[in-house]
Amino acid sequence: MKIRTIKLLAKEGANNVVKNKLMSFASMMTVVVALFILGIVLLMAINITSNIEAMKRDLELTVFLNVNATPYQREEVVNFVEAKKDAGLISEYRIETKEQMYENIKNSLEDESLLEGFTVENAAESFYIKLVDPNSSDAIISQISEFGGVNKNAIGYGKEELDKLEGILKIFNSVTIIVLAVLMIISIFLISNTIKLTVYARRHQIEIMKYIGAVDSFIRGPFIVEGFILGLLGAAVAFLLTSQAYTLLQKGLNALLTNLNLSTLRIMPFSPVAVRMFIIYAIFGIVIGGVGSVVSVRKHLNV
Amino acid sequence: MKIRTIKLLAKEGANNVVKNKLMSFASMMTVVVALFILGIVLLMAINITSNIEAMKRDLELTVFLNVNATPYQREEVVNFVEAKKDAGLISEYRIETKEQMYENIKNSLEDESLLEGFTVENAAESFYIKLVDPNSSDAIISQISEFGGVNKNAIGYGKEELDKLEGILKIFNSVTIIVLAVLMIISIFLISNTIKLTVYARRHQIEIMKYIGAVDSFIRGPFIVEGFILGLLGAAVAFLLTSQAYTLLQKGLNALLTNLNLSTLRIMPFSPVAVRMFIIYAIFGIVIGGVGSVVSVRKHLNV
Amino acid sequence: MIRFVDVTKIYSNGVIGLRNTTVKIDKGEFVFIIGSSGSGKSTFLKLIMHEEMPTEGEVYVNGYSVHDMPHSEIPYLRRSLGVVFQDFRLLPNKTAYENVAFAMQIVEATSREIRRQVPLALGLVGLSKKAKAYPNQLSGGEQQRVVLARALVNNPSVLIADEPTGNLDPKTSKEIMALLEEINQRGTTVVVATHEKDLVDSMKKRVIVLERGDIKSDVKKGSYSNEDKDY
Amino acid sequence: MIRFVDVTKIYSNGVIGLRNTTVKIDKGEFVFIIGSSGSGKSTFLKLIMHEEMPTEGEVYVNGYSVHDMPHSEIPYLRRSLGVVFQDFRLLPNKTAYENVAFAMQIVEATSREIRRQVPLALGLVGLSKKAKAYPNQLSGGEQQRVVLARALVNNPSVLIADEPTGNLDPKTSKEIMALLEEINQRGTTVVVATHEKDLVDSMKKRVIVLERGDIKSDVKKGSYSNEDKDY
Ligand SMILES: Nc1ncnc2c1ncn2[C@@H]1O[C@H](COP(=O)(O)OP(=O)(O)OP(=O)(O)O)[C@@H](O)[C@H]1O
Ligand SMILES: Nc1ncnc2c1ncn2[C@@H]1O[C@H](COP(=O)(O)OP(=O)(O)OP(=O)(O)O)[C@@H](O)[C@H]1O
Ligand SMILES: [Mg+2]
Ligand SMILES: [Mg+2]
Fold this sequence. Notes:
The complex is a heterotetramer, with 2 copies of chain A and 2 copies of chain C. Chain A is mostly helical. Chain A has helices at residues 3-19, 21-58, 71-86, 98-108, 137-144, 159-201, 203-211, 216-259, 271-298, and strands at 60-64, 90-96, 126-131. By secondary structure, chain C is of the alpha/beta class. The two termini of chain C are 28 Å apart.
């Protein structure tokens, strides 16, 4: 195929976009809708995952010393924790003294009278440790429980909550993957449906071209270009729509979360993912548009 | 318009469904997709709401008696609670004796040695009350705190958690409404798009009918019937698809929730909402199909 | 019955289809409209059936004034006409039979009437055997005859035929013209745009000659080349 | 150049389009195909251009054997032909000029060639002034002439015309036939299906008469009614 022919077909495709306004609009908007839904689901999934990851990072490993632990035993534990921190396994830790512990227990009991006879001396010193990698908890727990001064029965890592979160994460991940897959299929289906209809409306033109001797690639060319253009246009519109809608939603939800004292939960802003989203959109739009057109045209070429 | 003409137009519409397979399929599947997405969102919303409602119902009002409350004072509180229960404000309640309370505290402390000097006598008797209407908590709390034997500082209703849940519910409700509205608009848009294209592909036929003297209602008739049929078919397919997909998801998620000891969360089965869903689907399908066709045909009638 | 008063039709792209035309066709007349390609014959007929609106002037057809006719009246005007379109306009998803029947269905004829009239009309144009064929299964001439059958089937008071024999062989053309004459003799006004020189010459009917949108001549018993000229 | 060997075409609905036809048309010939409506003329031409496939027998065109031609070869066969379709087949979203130019674009002509040839072709059929009009803005005869211009523009070795003057007045028809004859004299094989009795009679070319799918006669210098019969 000669260069001038390729140029011609590209121009033809661009012209068709303008000439077939209804069909162009329909195809483009289907791409927009498909990508918009896809994008919102994707952003939802990213947010849920990142929030759960953040919650996981917030978990603390709690280690109680025995009530009668010696200063040496205490020192051992402090040294161990410091070493792990230097090794980059522990991000931070704090120590709660017996006095603090006593206060905490006092506050946690609804009736102070319950504490009659319970003194500072009876309280245990405790360590609250944040791990860099929540998955290293098991190893650290087994090491720390070797120390003499540590109350082996009272090491806690919110294991239960962690498991629940892990579970929820797993559910969300699988549901998200399923939903994304289903939406992807639906999107492709909707778009191909629309393209098929727009091609169908022009089947006679395709046949006429065949009858006067156009080769298949010549007929297909403008449709591919048209598909590209509409796919890209659709991706651009969808991107704008998604970013606007998402930013609006993000602001509203974050305000709401702050109001509700749930500020540990955060809806992330759009900008960090903008470029990636745009690339995903553009590729999806162009490929679907181009491939969809070619496939839809093919069945009418057989005359 | 004569009866036989109406019959004729109905038959014609049914014939068109069969004759224009591609276009029928495209329209129907667009309805299916739209309703499917709509249905899944609706079911998600129903589940989230009902789970949060259930969690709210699970909240307990906790009332501690003073450690030194007299049997008479205790009796007063019991009578009050019983009266409220008879009045239908309280669904159930249980009383935790001093002994149980002591055990609980003992178990809740990680180190038993902390309890040194803390005896059964120091523990308080407590009431755990479930309200029929979580919103009546304020009134009941103010009444119950009037009693002499009640520890006024220790009445708890998980107010904080309730507020959070309320907030989350509010978020989900507004997000759901927004999402539903957006999806509704998108669905209508997609369907009308598809119908417009299928009508566009037959615009010449519409014009021909006009040119040989058919009145508008005669031309519109078969399109309305066609829209009805395709809308209803689409609704039926969407209903089957939704019920199957949902039931599958429901089983999987419930199993997962049980595995994760999250069985307070429950995904409800499809059957209780089946009839309502079907009616929503059918109305949506028929109305959109019929109205969409009429509107799309109109612009081609003007010759 | 049909009256053009000072009618000018200028198409949206500025092309003049018809210019200052005043003409009257009485009930029961048989009129040929002739003229070279692009002279305005189809424009003339389209104005009658309200497919095009006059840019200026007034068209009266069967008591309807085309100019200020409400949209809802147009179908009734068209039903009073039987039209053979130059570009056929058959419904592609209906058989020959169904296409003809459709014209009766829109006037809400009974199925009995339809079952009697449609085969008759198809028989008249010699297409009984093609009743079940779809338009794309028919030859050009066969399609043209289906259109004629559709135009005839409701016994319209005016029959308008644009080039009704363009795809027919001379013998069939002659038969079709004889058919039109017979219909005319039963009282139907017939207006035919045609290029069939032989037939126009032999039938000695009123001939209106158009030339670039103007009526060039209008002769009671005319022939294709009244003034020894070819159009 | 064109050879039918025992060709039978039976359409999917059982209708016989052409039966046991054996015929040969040499390079440079001018052949009229005549016959009444539905006799198989268009079928004959469609078999040449591979629009329809023979049910039996073999069709050879310009060195291609239509029967076992790979799909990808079909466009090249068609490009060696210029075709005037009975139903026009103009691209509705292209102007007259663009429609003709399109036939040159598919053979990858340079824009210079296109700018020179297209106006020439439109001029030959008398449509220079209508270059910018879309098909639905053209009269029937004008559309038909655009189709002819499109068929001519690539100087095909074979010109196939199905009823090329069906919508044209006698004068224009005569001019078009003269044009075809001129093209034929420059070496192009011309095959014309037509009903124009006068022209066939006056031109004294080879005439193949079809009747219900059979070749009824094939006369070197024939006329429309060789045997004193009308077809
Ligand atoms: N696609 C088709 N399917 C079925 N039958 C067809 C098809 N095309 C044509 N026929 C039939 O085949 C026969 C020959 O048709 P053809 O178009 O070749 O006739 P023709 O000689 O060109 O007639 P005309 O002068 O009216 O154009 C006719 O009886 C026609 O009804
Ligand atoms: N829709 C339109 N828009 C613009 N110009 C038109 C339109 N229809 C027809 N014309 C032009 O108006 C003039 C008259 O056209 P018309 O169709 O009436 O001719 P005609 O006499 O029927 O010709 P033919 O014998 O070729 O059918 C022509 O020049 C034609 O190009
Ligand atoms: Mg005309
Ligand atoms: Mg033919």
